[in-house]
Amino acid sequence: MIDDRPDCSVLLIDDEPFSQDIIAHGLTGCVGHNLCYESSPARAVQVAREVRATVVLVDLRMPDLDGFEVTTRLRAHPDTEDIPVIVLSSEDDPEIKARAFAVGANDYLVKWPDPRELVARVRYHSGACNARRQRDAAFASLRVSQEQLAASQSALHQAQKMEAIGQLTGGVAHDFNNVLQIIGGNLQLLKLVGNLNDNAKARVEMALTGVERGAKLAAHLLAFARRQPLQSVVVDPGHLLRDMDDMMRRVLGPSARVVTEIDPDLGSIMVDPNQLNNVLLNLAINARDAMAGSGTLTIRAMNAGPDLPPDVPPGEYVMLEVADTGKGMPKEILQRAFEPFFTTKPVGQGTGLGLSMAYGFVKQSGGEIVLTSEVGRGTSVRIYLPRSDATPSRVETVHSVQLTGGLETILVVEDEKDVRESTAGILSALGYDVIEAEHAAQALEIIESGRHIDLVFTDVIMPGPVSSLQLGEIVAERLPGTQILYTSGYAEGVLVHEGTLDASLHLLQKPYHPEALAARIRHLLRRGERHPGAGAGLQSGRTHFGLT
Fold this sequence. Notes:
Keywords: Phosphoprotein. The protein is an alpha/beta fold. The protein is 44% helix and 18% strand. The protein is built from 14 helices and 17 strands. The strands form 3 sheets. Strands 6, 7, 8, 9, 10, 11 and 12 form a 7-stranded mixed β-sheet that branches.
């Protein structure tokens, strides 16, 4: 008995039923085969597809359609064009054989063939068919793998490009913030002590407005670069969205409709609420522009289910969605939407930093952002942020109403001379006794000299053998009642927990206003009076993170 693979599917097309018995008997030695009989030649293609035939035996002479026509039809259909066809005929005529091969037959047998020859030819052609199918499946799998590889390479290239742009923009923002601090600090000092007339004051205010615009631009760049310091706390996102509802409606205008859907069992998230507020507001502004002031803006907040998008790692998330019914984006625009300064808005109507800021903030917060859009059907931005089991906390607010000074002693540590001098000038104008240090090592010399210091105001990134981290630890150890306030125009190498500022630290981002500086200093000094010994935010034996 001849062994054979079980995937040998034989279809016999013949108008004479007795031929089924003859073929079945002839294939007795073909183990594992399946024989299907069809008397109607018109159904040949349909049945061949249904039984996944690996070889078709077709009678040459039939009343309705002959074997030539059946073979032609099988070859014409894409699902059966490669199935081997063996023509069965009682005519041993070379001319008829040639015609059969011309219309696509693979073989020709004269009725009735010896069972051994029948089995051998069926096995041969069926094996060839299976091999072809396996080859085609392999090629199809290879094509899919190549497409997936190309998609992965494209995603990697995009990620590398975004990372490179992020490093560049982060470095530029750092230097830009220092320049803005020099300009803004001296302008503010000029306002305080310059005895300016009204015209000069107006000019100074105009210049300060430009500094504010530059500061916002730098903040957006830092957000995209994932270098902004995040003051993350556990918040209820539903509460945040409800508080933003009136603002959203004012942003969208009277012609737009705002729909808010908040899951009643919505989980908490650990995030910087102010930055999240800015992100949602920017997304709403983009939606308004995309809808030309009308349409429907839908804001959703829900606990994400197990069916997460492919780009979102497994985990428990809260999903925030901002969806509009605007004009949507084509694929080529969608691929570049997160790039900084890329915008489709006319000149003067957008910086191209809204989505890039959202991208950087979400990534830095440990989440993922998914952008989908279809031309004519609108755009959806979904933000996935990790859920937190902790109870939402209340953030201590620092109010800044007016410039408030004092008589305490403040040590200003800053390697940029112009920044240091302008800051020292502002603090001196507010009545403080100010000591200046060019770097942390010089600050340590002043501390070791025994000078009384109420607060250390230090830059984070400075040259020299002593880092700001080490300075903070020494201040906590030797001057436990002294407060410490950090400042930086750049968060790289500063923060811990993937960009989240440690709760024990206090950071004032450059460029800072005199009002903000004065308010933070007074807040910390009063805090030191209420909680003596906790000045530097570094308790004995506690690990201090991130400031290097």
